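QA checklist item 7 of 12: single-chain prediction sanity check.
[x] sequence parsed
[x] length recorded as 130
[x] structure emitted
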Amino acid sequence: MSEPLGIDALLERVRHGYRRVEPRAAHEAAEAGTALLVDIRYAALRERDGVIPGALVVERNELEWRLDPQGSHRLPEATDHDLRVVVVCDEGYASSLAAESLHRLGLHRATDLIGGFQAWRAAGLPVAVA
């Protein structure tokens, strides 16, 4: 049996599998219609801090079921495996693991937002009341 990896090492390994995006680049891609922003934060954080206008809210425990283009519980936005998804969590940690999980489902363009919602807000990008 091998030594446990640890979360920091796991995050580093996972993040080498795709290119993460900065808040302004994510905003531009969403505005251009070339990326779907998916907010996986739980309700209390959205209520406390607000939401990204136009982002699809899918809590983390439902993400794979809602975005799998072949899944029986998929959302209409889950059109195909070429969909560019930018996963947003609070600070950019859980979103990395979520993006890796989407890769395993064949969503090869899935990525996550560096710094999460907090970096989005700090960059002065649009935020709406939940």
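[x] summary fact logged: DSSP finds six helices and four strands in the chain.
[ ] second reviewer sign-off
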